[in-house]
Amino acid sequence: MSRGTSATGTRLTLDLWHPDCWAIQATEDNPGGILAHAVYDSPTSGECSVNSLFTAYGETESEVEALLDSIDESPLTETVRELHTQLDTRTDPVAPGEVSREFFLEHDPTDMICPLLLEHGFVHSSPGRIEGGREYWNVRYAGERGDIEDELASIEKQANADIDIERIGSVGRETRDANRLDALTPSQREAFELARERGYYEWPREASTRELASELDVSKTTLLEHLRKAEAKLLDP
């Protein structure tokens, strides 16, 4: 049997809330946030709890401590086992904030929405982020794009959840765009991503070339040259 190489499916970023979730409750009451990585142990016979790996993060150690205390005190959680603290996460592309701490948590997996997402065909492609009382999941859906709204509506009904699609796009397009971004030099990519982030390509423009050049500490002429070359590579058919 031959295996096709064409990219199929849809990528989405989901912004959601659901009741009776220890992570949502903890981040509603505390600054910082939580990254949900993976379930390590499946429930054993006669038991409903699992051990999962998470990262708590914040701007200070005290913020992370307060967040972990809130998780530990929740009636929805069991054993919290802290692993290690990272005092500067700026070199870590995964964990936001200045301080992060990994921990294993024994809990009922049905308190999390990720098993229900998987049941409906939404496979997470990166750690889920819980912050400010909301969950954010980057997922892939391999079914028909027209079925997405019905599947999400079913999840909302089953979990009494509120789900918004923050971003949606084609998996094939994402791969192509990523390859084109890789063709940029570091300076071109930095200038282009800053311009996009600051709204330079919005209409009306939300940032001027002078402001972007100042932020990058380069001349306006240099900035425009970086953007011109980046645009030529990205827009080339």
UniProtKB/TrEMBL annotation:
Gene3D superfamilies: Winged helix-like DNA-binding domain superfamily/Winged helix DNA-binding domain (1.10.10.10)
Keywords: Transcription, Transcription regulation
Keyword Transcription regulation: yes
Domain HTH bat-type, chain residue ranges per copy: 184-235
A Pfam family of this chain: HTH_10
PANTHER family assigned to the protein according to its UniProt record, in alphabetical order: DIMETHYL SULFOXIDE REDUCTASE TRANSCRIPTIONAL ACTIVATOR
Protein name: Helix-turn-helix domain-containing protein
Organism field: Halobacterium litoreum
